[in-house]
Amino acid sequence: MKALITGVSGFVGRYLAQNLLDNGYEVWGGSRNCPPSFMDGVKLVELNFTSQESVMEVLEDVMPDVVFHLSGQSSVRYSWDHIEETFESNLMDSIALLEAIKNSSLKDKIRVISIGSSEEYGLGAELPIKEDAVTNPINPYGLSKLSIGKIALLYHTLHGMDIIHVRAFNHIGPGQMLGFVTSDFAKQVVDIENGDVEPTIYVGDLSSKRDFTDVRDIVEAYRLLYEKGIAGQIYNICSGVCISIEDILGILLSFSSKPIKVIIDENKFRPNNVKEYYGSNEKLRTATGWEPSISIKQSLFDIYHYWKQSSHK
Ligand SMILES: C[C@H]1O[C@H](OP(=O)(O)OP(=O)(O)OC[C@H]2O[C@@H](n3cnc4c(=O)[nH]c(N)nc43)[C@H](O)[C@@H]2O)[C@@H](O)[C@@H](O)C1=O
């Protein structure tokens, strides 16, 4: 099987590439600014969504069986101040990809895994959130992802294309960039341990509760959905339970031997935040047999170690 991953050099892209290689796939990675070398076994191509023709050329050259469309703007917080950029790189790039596929010789031979988010549900969905729950996103990021899902499934209905839209809930793991809660917290704990800063950690809203899954389990679900999912369907990827951000902080602080003072920084709060949500993964489990294998504690421990190792480099 031949897979093309857009945004391969991002946090999730790297894990997906490794998962696919481990499972015998030929892996091609698309990136806007293609680095000269990347990961053993991954063949790189330049993907520029502003030129539909060049995307088509890449598709005709590579002839993948599946495209995992991972590239995009992934930060909810950033989306508030960068609405145009968020819609450009999430929605418009997705449309460019779908159009290129529709107009290529691959149209009836390729499966597209479109990556959405639990932020598409927003306010008012009944817990645990199922795929048919109401969608009422309350930030630009969630709205952009909801639009992608709607457009993607329209291409399925109107043009008969084989597309699955996934709604991934919060995913975490070693290598996630700063700006996401577990990396933000773990890096500060490590900096404190190393004596680089005062023993004070600055955090945002600790009261919200989210459904976290390790990125290694998330990418396993992406692969299984390619292999076993049903075209035209939406699938949640989530653990099915939620944990408060305060408890996440507590676990990360427990890895440190130093007493650490916690300061709530209101600048880190969001203009709009759903207090608590978690999803149902029943549809995904039934379709693919997937189940999460890495506990939240293990994930947080691995993230903490990642930052510890990075700080010694
Ligand atoms: C499903 C969804 O999941 C992610 O979006 P997110 O939920 O915004 O992720 P986050 O890690 O930035 O925040 C999680 C929670 O943690 C709270 N929080 C407290 N204190 C800090 C803090 O210091 N930093 C951050 N970043 N958050 C903090 C913050 O207010 C929020 O309630 C993306 O993967 C996205 O791509 C996606 O699709």
Automatic annotation (TrEMBL):
Protein name: GDP-mannose 4,6-dehydratase
Residues covered by the NAD(P)-binding domain: 4-299
Pfam family, one: GDP_Man_Dehyd
SUPFAM superfamilies: NAD(P)-binding Rossmann-fold domains
Matches recorded under InterPro entries: NAD(P)-bd_dom, NAD(P)-bd_dom_sf
